[in-house]
Amino acid sequence: MELNIRPEQPSDYRETEEVTREAFWNHYAPGCCEHYLLHIMRECPAFLPELALVAVQEGRIVGAVVSLKAAIFGDDGREYEVLTLGPIAVLPGYQRQGIGTRLIQRTKDAARRLGYRAILLCGDPDYYSRQGFLPAERLNIRTADNLYAAALQYCELWDGALSGAAGRYVEDPIYAVEDAAVAAFDKGFPPKEKISGTASQQRFQQLAAMCRAAD
Fold this sequence. Notes:
Layout: E1 3-7, H1 13-24, H2 34-41, E2 53-57, E3 60-74, E4 79-90, H3 99-113, E5 118-122, H4 125-128, E6 134-135, E7 141-142, E8 147-149, E9 152-156, E10 167-170, H5 179-186, H6 199-208, E11 211-213
Parallel strand pairs: 4-5, 7-10
Antiparallel strand pairs: 1-2, 2-3, 3-4, 3-10, 5-9, 6-9, 8-11
Organism: Oscillibacter hominis
Keywords: Transferase
Domain N-acetyltransferase: 3-154
């Protein structure tokens, strides 16, 4: 079946949020916040509509990805503009078919044409290493609170794009959503059971603990 990747349109917003909710429900924690995050991102100054993409199959949105502007505050005093990827979502019934890979590749291609130097994210290296991402620690890039994190990864959009960019990576503060706001927003969707202790939640907790202070 043909998969079409295209820019998200305003008429897609609700369906894209539903897809994101389905993809993330009980994945990192009981329930999820990513559909609310996507909802409020669109009004964020760092949001890039041209990098908001949906994957459509047989007239149905089955995947989506967005990106926001971010920065690395370099140890050399410079500020390096980069992108944060995510959330990226694929409906559970359509996962492991290469849809996420195609969304990421299309994002890379578009971001490169727009002149961005690199994409960073926090995610599972078991997956993102297969998408061309590398540990940020290799370039001495740390989190905003100056930690080396196993989940923090980068992908240069051209060779040497982050040369000399050692420093602290700071994503947009919109990612720090409030639990009460998430709960209120989620009431507008059909009820779903929240489950604790899933394998993906355990993996997330493991990765979250894999941090160490910079020397």
